Amino acid sequence: MQQKFQAMLDAGHDGALLRFSLGELCFKAGDLDAAVTHLAEAVRQDSQYSAAWKLYGRALLDQGQFQDALETLERGIEVANARGDNQAAREMQVFRKRAVKAQR
To answer: Residues with Cβ < 8 Å from 57, sequence gap 6 or more?
Structure first.
């Protein structure tokens, strides 16, 4: 599936959903660098994409980029709250607490 999505991207069919899908597949495969790259692009293309913010923040957290994760998750929480996406906001609050704790 990842190869299919990458082929779509290579063919010029870029978009937030495609980037999120690639980021999610990379994240699950443990390729955090690629996941972060795709997820950053997903939220750049659609700043209201709360699921992308959540996974982007988690990927940064798992990479050990705690300050970046914290900033990303705070923005994601704002987006999720504004959209009424309460579940995503709650999950990001958990990840945010982990980022804060890891910085101590």
So the answer is: 69, 72, 73, 76, 92, 95, 96, 99
